[in-house]
Design goal:
Length: about 300
């Protein structure tokens, strides 16, 4: 009996990893880390290094120091309009699409009639790429054959929704918000389903109105979802490329930093060093927004 008990005790103890287990663990962890280094951080480090050089991709690499950045900030007319447009994207997605997606999620979570239909319909644009959304925008907003001008009856003097630089950025932002709203709605809807219903019941017993319950009880409980939505919104706004490139190759009022990177690296100019400098600026702006947002959210978690 004592020997049997000792054997059972040994079996219940922590299992030692064999060489095969360690090998499998190294492969499962090593391959993703290796791919991340090769496909993400490797090109990132290369872009930072190339941003200080003058290279056309064919000849020798010449050191340029801060010359690319000086030219970018002082003598490149497309840069500041692109920065302004990226900020407009961030404001539109963050201040319009995100609150509207939260509103739709709250309404559907209340169990309105045909909620499944609304949920599927509003989420449908999310499965489309921004390039496809751009083609849909062209079908609707085209000057000569667009559906919107046909409905407005502007046959003799149609509005050039996508060609007018004073209008096209707002039309494209409307299309981007249409897609982003469904994405935000699904994220918040999943978060609302995980909120403890006893919190709402306790607030109702204390005499809180439905609005007070949402803003003072439910919304603070959605803090993890708020972090995810905030980071995704910043990333979507700063990496926007497909839709404006599909409409007019990101020109005539639709300039974005991502388009400038592509035009300088892949275009006829092939100024890889200069394009890398624009990519580094976009990287720093992205990191600035994301890190600041995450630090604020983590501080809020510590105070709770």
């Amino acid at each position: 009996m004592p020997k049997t008990a000792a054997r059972r005790a040994r079996r219940r103890g922590p299992r030692r990893h064999t060489r095969r287990d360690r090998a499998v663990l190294c492969v499962l962890l090593g391959l993703p880390i290796l791919l991340d280094l090769v496909l993400v951080w490797g090109p990132t480090a290369a872009s930072v290094g190339l941003s200080f050089t003058d290279w056309d991709g064919v000849g020798g690499i010449e050191w340029a120091g801060l010359g690319n950045y000086a030219h970018l900030f002082t003598d490149y007319p497309q840069f500041w309009p692109a920065v302004r447009n990226n900020l407009l994207w961030l404001a539109a997605l963050g201040l319009l699409a995100t609150p509207f997606g939260l509103l739709l999620a709250a309404l559907i979570d209340r169990g309105v009639r045909f909620s499944r239909f609304y949920q599927s319909t509003l989420y449908m644009p999310v499965v489309l790429s921004l390039a496809v959304v751009g083609f849909i925008a062209q079908l609707i907003l085209s000057r000569d054959q667009g559906a919107l001008n046909a409905l407005l009856g502007g046959g003799k003097d149609p509005v050039d929704w996508l060609g007018d630089p004073d209008l096209n950025i707002w039309m494209i932002l409307l299309a981007a918000c249409w897609r982003h709203t469904g994405y935000v709605m699904i994220l918040y809807l999943a978060g609302l389903k995980s909120v403890d219903p006893t919190l709402k019941e306790a607030a109702a017993i204390d005499g809180a109105t439905e609005r007070q319950t949402f803003f003072r009880v439910v919304l603070p409980a959605l803090r993890p979802v708020n972090v995810i939505v905030g980071v995704i919104t910043v990333i979507e706004a700063l990496r926007a490329f497909d839709i404006v490139y599909a409409v007019n190759k990101g020109r005539n009022g639709l300039e974005l930093l991502s388009v400038l990177v592509t035009d300088n690296i892949v275009g006829e100019a092939s100024r890889i060093g200069f394009g890398s400098a624009i990519a580094v600026v976009l990287l720093l702006v992205s990191l600035g927004f994301i890190v600041t947002y995450l630090v604020q959210e983590l501080r809020g978690e510590e105070r709770r």
